[in-house]
Amino acid sequence: MSGKTERVSGGEIVVRRMDPGDDQQVLDLLRVALGWRREDPNQAFFDWKHRKNPFGESPCWVASVGPEIVGFRTFMRWGFDTPDRPVRAVRAVDTATHPNYQGRGIFSALTRQAVGELVAEGVDFVFNTPNDKSRPGYLKMGWRDVGRLPAGVRPASLSALPRIAAARVPAELWSEPTEAGLAVPEALVDDDAIAALLAALPKSDGVTTHRTPAYLRWRYGFEPLAYRAVHAGPSVSDGVLLFRLRRRGPATELVVGDLLVPEPTPAAARRLVRLALRATRADYALGLRTMASSGLLPVPGQGPILTWRSLSSETMPPLTDWRLSLGDVELF
Q1: Residue 164: inside a domain
Q2: Can you say how many angstroms the Cα of residue 126 is from the centroid of all Cα atoms in its chain?
């Protein structure tokens, strides 16, 4: 496929949309640039994120020098609901430049091309939660800092506090196995019950992910991530906690992906979190406190920093309007 020739430091590159035949080169590039381990299910993870997403396949761009792909950039499609209208968004996720070509402006060239095409397509905005190393580069390219999403925790017991205090290191990507609760495909099998739960949730006054039965099954059903579900009653319509376990230093962390309860009370949320903590013997639960009721205790100064870039929409929602769960922002 033809592309656009861009002048970068040290020569020229061709920027174009990714072709199906580029898969192996792109996966090899991601392994080299991001340190992916060959024993991990990286190709399945890539396909799950970018090709099986119910919001649509991810648009992807590559930069090449001759036949060699040296850069990759993709934006993952996402749907939000707001009090005014549905919103089409994308999330800035996987990006890589070959180590031999870093520092030449390839990331910027790929991003400029992608942003231009997404504006023409009518996508409203880009959002993501870049780390401290990459955030300055995004801000230079027009991203804006929305603010820090408020994290919350719930310790399982007093005896877990020393391990929690020592868990100030990055968490593992892949999950720890557990038999607690139900496997997500088993828990989320009944479309009618899931739809009843979603309809019974408190009406949001902010920006929330457009949740459907298909979305929940996709987001939490990727087997290598080992998400589990705990019901509040006999049916998922009574409320559900979707979670996984991961290691963070000496502690076992229960990641609260989504906590969906028809009763908008902290008590209802706390019941589900306590049940999952007892069943898994995790040291603590971690999630975001932006939902209507999280049942989690605030942790000042913690949580991912949300960034935003205008595409077709010019108005950035303030931090107080975002109603995100950790499942909306982790992993990608």
Answers
A1: yes
A2: 13
